[in-house]
Amino acid sequence: MKTLLLCLTVAVAIGLVYGDLPKYADSIMTRATGAKGVLLCGKLPAKNARVRLFRKESDDPKEILDYKITGDDGRFEVEGNTADRTGNETNIEPVLKIYHKCDEKEEKKGYRRFVIKYPSQFVTLGRIARSHYNVGTLNLEVIYPNEGREKNFVEGNAKNI
């Protein structure tokens, strides 16, 4: 009887330890990043600009970690992590994409878009970013390098696109 009880105890212990191993491995591989800044259109705050934080350079909505729309003050803060991803999808090569209509008529279809890649030193282990990359104050009247136009912009992030 003692032998059977010992075998059952060992089997349960092994199941508990190795059964959660994939979850534990994924949780220690989780990475987070964040960015913040202020967007202006000339001397005025850029209201309703869209800011997306991507895990890597991609147009795939599944790579969006966070999405915000600037308020009346033009400020934004985005933060995201890879907690819902596995394996090689936990690496982050952070990319901000900013979509706006500065110096354009509101009726014009689509948004002006430019990309900011920022250093990986702002990627930390865990679910919460320890420090945010500060892009500072950007004037959207400027035409940024490789700026383009996103004609088929879909509002939101990966969960509702």
Order of helices and strands: HHEEEEEEEEEE
Number of DSSP E strands: 10
User: Helix fraction?
Assistant: 10-25%
Low-confidence stretches: 19-24
How far apart are the first and last residues' alpha carbons, in Å?
A: 59 Å
Under the CATH scheme, the architecture is: Sandwich
CATH class: Mainly Beta
**What structural class is derived from the secondary structure elements?**
alpha+beta
Q: Domain count, please report it.
A: 1
Task: Note the overall shape.
Answer: elongated
Query: What is the count of helical runs?
Result: 2
Q: Quote the beta fraction.
A: 35-45%
Q: The CATH topology is what? A: Immunoglobulin-like
Radius of gyration: 22 Å
Pfam families: TTR-52
InterPro entries: Transthyretin-like, Transthyretin-like_sf
Signal peptide: 1-19
Protein name: Transthyretin-like family protein
Task: Give the topology, please.
Elements: H1 2-19, H2 21-28, E1 31-41, E2 44-45, E3 50-54, E4 64-69, E5 75-81, E6 95-100, E7 111-117, E8 123-125, E9 133-139, E10 148-150
Parallel strand pairs: 1-9
Antiparallel strand pairs: 1-2, 1-5, 1-8, 3-4, 3-6, 6-7, 7-10
Signal peptide: 1-19
Family: Belongs to the nematode transthyretin-like family.
Protein name: Transthyretin-like family protein
Q: Describe it for me?
A:
Belongs to the nematode transthyretin-like family. Pfam families: TTR-52. This is Transthyretin-like family protein. InterPro entries: Transthyretin-like, Transthyretin-like_sf. About 4% of the residues have low confidence. Strands 1, 2, 5, 8 and 9 form a five-stranded mixed sheet that branches. The protein is built from two helices and ten strands, in the order ααββββββββββ. It has a single domain, classed as Immunoglobulin-like (Sandwich), CATH 2.60.40.3330. By secondary structure, the protein is α+β, with helices and mostly antiparallel strands.
